[in-house]
């Protein structure tokens, strides 16, 4: 089985926000997305539109950031679906990102590594207050065994 995408390059003006989108991106968040695109390019390929309406179902923040940066076209996934399917997809996609959680040891290790490489919290979309909130909200217990990742020390072979 193969998961395949067939992106289409479209003018940004050919697409519009879905009028019933229940999610909102603040200006600060759009500026953060724009900063990420400026640093790394448009690499996520994360915008989906409904074929019959050309309403944006996924990637509203990216769309706004690309517009802010002066892009005139981008790659989109154009999907033929009913209005009901489009609404369901739009809500589900937003909800699924809410259901993920940070894993403290991995986040700590990445932050230390990136700091050693000269990066600041702001380079990752955090400030001290936001990081404190994320850390405080992390579960105390380890993640379920299904998602634990063992690491092996390259020197001694100890797994942790």
Can you give a write-up of this model?
With 160 residues, the protein is α/β, with parallel strands linked by helices. The chain folds into two domains: 8-98, Conserved hypothetical protein from pyrococcus furiosus pfu- 392566-001, ParB domain, CATH 3.90.1530; 101-160, no CATH class. It has five helices and five strands. Strands 1-5-3-4-2 form a five-stranded mixed β-sheet, with helices on one face. A hairpin with a 4-residue loop joins strand 3 (48-50) and strand 4 (55-58). Helix 1 crosses helix 2 (60-68). The chain is globular. The protein starts with 7 loop residues before the first strand and ends in a 23-residue tail after the last helix.
**Name of the CATH architecture of the largest domain:** Alpha-Beta Complex
What is the terminal-to-terminal distance? Answer: 34 Å
The CATH homologous superfamily of the largest domain corresponds to Conserved hypothetical protein from pyrococcus furiosus pfu- 392566-001, ParB domain
- Can you tell me the overall shape? globular
Q: Specify the helix fraction band.
A: 25-40%
Strand content: 5-15%
Give a topology summary:
Layout: E1 8-11, E2 16-17, H1 27-40, E3 48-50, E4 55-58, H2 60-68, E5 73-79, H3 83-98, H4 104-116, H5 128-137
Parallel strand pairs: 2-4, 3-5
Antiparallel strand pairs: 1-5, 3-4
Helix pairs in contact: 1-2
């Amino acid at each position: 089985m193969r998961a395949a995408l067939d992106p289409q390059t479209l003018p940004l003006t050919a697409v519009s926000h879905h009028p019933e989108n229940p999610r909102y991106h603040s200006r600060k968040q759009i500026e953060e997305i724009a900063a990420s695109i400026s640093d790394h390019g448009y690499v996520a390929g994360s915008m989906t539109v409904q074929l019959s309406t050309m309403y944006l179902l996924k990637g509203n923040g990216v769309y706004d950031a690309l517009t802010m940066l002066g892009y005139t076209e981008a790659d989109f996934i154009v999907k033929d679906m009913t209005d009901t399917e489009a609404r369901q997809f739009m809500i589900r996609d937003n909800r699924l990102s809410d259901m993920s959680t940070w894993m403290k040891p991995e986040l700590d290790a990445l932050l230390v590594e990136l700091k050693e490489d000269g990066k600041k919290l702001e380079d990752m979309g955090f400030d001290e207050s936001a990081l404190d909130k994320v850390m405080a909200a992390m579960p105390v217990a380890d993640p379920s065994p299904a998602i634990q990742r063992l690491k092996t020390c390259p020197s001694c072979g100890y797994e942790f």
